Inverse folding.
């Protein structure tokens, strides 16, 4: 593997030493060898597949152990698509705005303040976050409420590891995630498209579900600014907007948090926002989705799966009317 390990999980950049041509050739050889049966196993194929992505030449590498329990077999979204087609309203509302303007975000130094209903409130810097639990790579689907989806290899660990560290009190029923809102770094914050800061929230048992991830990287590197550097949430069974980016505060509460999208359009965006093909958005169907990177004139849309294809979260909602709690 190209990724070496350091005590803090960070590695020096060296992807720039490899030309895209070499990567392409290597991948072709891999695929040929796969075809004649001289190399077996999805792991090797995955490696070749990943090497084919042009990553950011100067980004810090993040060594992470693939977690086979959390790997979807769908083809990964090309890195260029995942980093140029984004929602990050702090940098503008066009899909291309974050890639264009997020260069002004300074992801280091960075801290997350953890407060509210916890026995051990604390402020964690990036080094502390990187060391909090072993970094894993998990390949998750992410589906936006707008009807498109991606498949991204995230680097991070279960959010539950952080909960364990700060010890929520018995009163902690919900968790609130607050993104940075700095007009100097984020031009979109000057515009009232949403109430700033961007806030999202979960019920505590949702936050403790092992699928809920605190992500510090993707594609083997630290998060690009446009994808929510340096730390974000990734909740693969919920619409993308629940996965708050560039988080500066995590607050444990008794009451259900007000969330940015629910405040801006309550009839369209509920607190739960589980991916659900059976509950239409008031203005469009949620039954199908477009996979970014595979669109073509004749590409058929994919069927959206209940909980985005993560049925293991169903027990969290047992007995709830998911049309009412959308
Ligand atoms: N702070 C913040 N977080 C955010 C958003 C945002 O505008 N601001 N957009 C959300 C939406 S709508 C989606 S679909 C995902 C997109 O993540 P991606 O750009 O990494 O694919 O981020 C979510 N997190
Ligand atoms: Mo979204």
């Amino acid at each position: 593997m190209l990724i070496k390990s350091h005590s803090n999980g960070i590695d020096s950049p060296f992807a720039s030493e490899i030309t895209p041509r070499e990567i392409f050739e290597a991948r072709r050889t891999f695929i040929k060898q796969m075809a004649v049966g001289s190399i077996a196993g999805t792991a090797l194929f995955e490696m070749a597949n990943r090497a084919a992505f042009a990553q950011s030449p100067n980004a810090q590498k993040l060594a992470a152990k693939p977690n086979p329990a959390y790997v979807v077999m769908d083809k990964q979204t090309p890195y260029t698509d995942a980093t140029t087609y984004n929602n990050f309203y702090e940098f503008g509302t066009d899909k291309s705005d974050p890639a264009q303007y997020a260069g002004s975000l300074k992801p280091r130094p960075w801290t997350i303040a953890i407060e509210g209903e916890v026995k051990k409130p604390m402020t964690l810097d990036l080094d502390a976050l990187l060391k909090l639990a072993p970094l894993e790579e998990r390949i998750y689907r992410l589906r936006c409420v707008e009807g498109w989806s991606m498949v991204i290899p995230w680097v991070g660990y279960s959010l539950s590891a952080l909960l364990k560290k700060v010890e929520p009190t018995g009163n902690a029923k919900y968790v609130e995630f607050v993104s940075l809102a700095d007009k100097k770094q984020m031009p979109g914050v000057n515009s009232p498209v949403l109430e700033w800061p961007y806030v999202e929230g979960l019920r505590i048992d949702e936050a403790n579900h092992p699928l809920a991830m605190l992500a510090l990287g993707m594609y083997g590197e630290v998060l690009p600014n446009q994808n929510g550097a340096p730390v974000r949430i990734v909740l693969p069974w919920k619409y993308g907007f629940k996965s708050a980016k560039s988080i500066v505060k995590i607050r444990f509460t008794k009451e259900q948090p007000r969330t940015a999208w629910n405040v801006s359009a309550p009839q369209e965006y509920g607190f739960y926002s589980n991916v659900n093909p059976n509950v239409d958005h008031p203005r469009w169907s949620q039954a199908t989705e477009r996979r970014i990177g595979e669109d073509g004139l004749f590409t058929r849309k994919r069927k959206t799966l209940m909980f985005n294809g993560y049925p293991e979260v169903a027990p969290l909602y047992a007995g709830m009317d998911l049309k009412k709690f959308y």
About this structure: The domain at 62-317 is CATH 3.90.420.10 (Sulfite Oxidase; Chain A, domain 2).
